[in-house]
Every structure is written in C-alpha cells, then in structure tokens.
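Help wanted!
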Amino acid sequence: MLALDFQQILSQAIAFVVLLVILRRFAWTPLLRMLDQRREGIERELRETAHQRDELARVQDEYGRRLAKIDDEARTKLQQCILEGKRIAIEVQEQARAQAQGILAKAKETVELEIAKAKVTLRDQLADMTVEAVERVLQKKVDAKTDRALIDAALDELEHERVRP
Amino acid sequence: MAVEPTHEAARSTAQAVAHHGAQAVQEAAHGGDAIPELPNLVTVLHHRLQDAPWVTWLHQWENIVFAAFVGVLLALLAWRTTRHPATIPRGWQNLLEVFVEGIDGMVHGMAGRHGRTFTPFVATIFVYIWLMNLSVVVPFLKSSTSSINTTVALALVVFSYVQYTGLRTLGVRGYLDHLAGSPRDLVGWLLVPLMLPIHLLGELIKPMSLSMRLAFNVFAEDVLLAVLVGLGIGLSLTVQLPPWAPVPLQLFVMPLVLIFSTVQALVFSLLSTVYLSLMLPHEEHH
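Answered by r_m:
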C-alpha cells in the first residue's frame, strides 16, 4: 500500500488530466456559462420589472391627476348648468306670468263686452214686453215706431233716475 | 437434479468472495502480513483465473482500472447531461448545476475574482475523489484512493497547477519574491535565508500531506469494512449459515463511510483551493 509505483502515479496523473480536460470541455464550462446566462437574464428581468413598476406608478399618478382635473371640470360645469337652469326657469316663469296676465285682461274685456251685449238684449226684450203689455192694457194698437220711441225715452229716463243717487 | 450453469457460477463466485475475505481476515488475526481487503471484480477474477496474463495485468493495475471506470462514468454523465442543455434544468442537469454552483461559490469566496478560473479544476478534483471514495460501498468495486499511488498522482497534479498558477499570476520575479517571504525592508532581506527554505519545504510538504491524508483515511475505511465483512462471514460460519449469506455487519458503518468519503473529498478540494489562492497576488486574498 505504501509502495510507490511511478508508472501508476504517472498513469493516474495523466488519467486525471484527461478527465479534467473532458469535464472542462463538456461539463463545467457549458454549465457555468449557462448559470451566468441565467443569472444575467434574471438580473435583466428584475431590472426591467423594477423599471416597469416605476413607470406604472408614474402613469398611475398621472392618471390620478388627470382624473382629479376632470372631476373638478365636471363639478364646475355642473354648477354652471345648475345656474343656467335656474335662470331659464325664472325667465319661463316671468313669460308665463306675462302671458297669464294678458289672457286675464283679454278675458275681462270679453266679459265686459258680453255683459254690455246682455244688457242691450235685456233692454230690448224688456221694451218688447212692455209694449205688448201696454197694448193689452190699452186694447188699442198704436203705431209701433212711435211706441218704441216713447218706451225708449221712458226707459232712459228711468235708467237715469236709477243711476242718480 | 441438474443445476443451471448461471446459478452454479454465481454460487462459485460467492464462495470465492467469501473465501477471499475470510482468508484475509484470518491471516490478519493471526498476525499475518495480509491486510484485510474487500474482494472486487479484479481480485475475484484473479482468484479464479490466476494463470491468465490479462487477469494478472488487471490485478497489477486494478487501481488504474477502477479510477478509469469512475472517470469514464463521469465523462459519460457530463456528455449526456450537457448534450442538450435546457434553460429550465431538470434531472441530472439540475443536480450538476447545483453542484457546480456550490463549488463555484466556494472557490469564488476563497480565491476572489480569480475563482472562476479554478472552478473546473476544483470541481473535477472533488467529484473524482468523491466517487472513487464511494466506490468501496458498491459490490465488486474498489476505492482507488485507498492506494497511495492514486493520491500522490492527484497531489502532484495539484502541486503542479499551484506552481503554474503562481508563475502565471505573479511572474517569475513575483514567484521568487513569494518564496522568499516578500521581503520589503532590511529585516525581511536578512530573513530570506531562513524563509526561502521554509517556503520551499512548505510547498513540497503540501502534496505529501494531501496525498497521505486522503490515502490513509480511505484505506482505513476500506480496512474497517473488510474486517466487518470478514467478521460477518465468520459469524455466519459459526452459526452454520451458508457462506454466500453472511451477516451484514458492515451495514452499521456504511453511513460513516459515506460521510467520511464526502468529507475527505471536500478537504482535498478545499486545501487545493487554499493553496491556489495563496499563489494569487496578496490583495486577492480573502
């Protein structure tokens, strides 16, 4: 066991060097290269992820600011719309009131005209009834035109007396 | 009833193995010169075919044969694993990547930015010694590292690589300066006659300590296993069990053998890395 055999030592050394060359060529170098590539890839992806996260935060802030601005603008326009609506409502109310007053005045005129017409008609009917009544009392037919004139005169007289206090 | 030839051959081989182990243990117990040794494929062949010249040659070179077997196994595994490397590793590639990454981290931690240069060397040293150490637990294989010739060869390769690294990184002048103890003042120059032999002696002792530590530890493990196997055979003969069914006493120390084999491979690799890192420029030391 302790006997040194230089042939065996040399053979073992050569065998190890050959194995080292083979493993270096087929195992360690490809595996180390792959590990380095994977490490670099992971680092690059982590950097990209961090960059995208920062970009996302920036875009979120930007959207937040824009949303706040849009909210303010919407609120301002809503207030303007409310004020405009109130103004239009007041105008409509005033127009309606004016139209109602016109209609009322016209109705009053019509009523007064109808009253005047009714009065004329009533006076005519009353005159006719009076003439007929007088004819029956007097049993005598007088001239119609003359009678009518007399009666109108009498009615005017009566009307004046009634109006006078 | 005729016995099938294969069964007959197997029984004959088992008996030869048992006989060989028991004989070795018995000789050792009676103060003989034979050191207990587990039978392996070559010794079994030699026992059965003593006159065949090729068997004699194999028996003479059995350490080389088993070392070459481990080397071929490693080369095939490396070729098969890295033939179609996948981005997402699986199976053997995953295992090898974990191993390489661990060795690379260790070497990088000890040797700094030059560590990557040494990783293939240290990884090969570790895995080669580790598998050779573990060969003893596989039936009919042998630990080539139990032979001083194997470990001396490995230590000489480490020594050569360390000196080459020193000359390459430091230059001839820097290398001689390193051997002289890096004198920078008068006291340093006065101490050169003392430091130079000490450093030279240290460099020469390193491969000796590496080879002897590994060879004797693995040899002790092998002897322990062989003794326990022999005791198991003796026990089975005592209780009249068939010789091919011995009591497996060696199973109790198998876990220890696995641990020690790994530790010895790691110690050899670590010390090789330390020797390499000591040859780097001083600002590279950690």
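OP: Thanks! One thing I noticed: Residues 11-281 of chain B form one domain.
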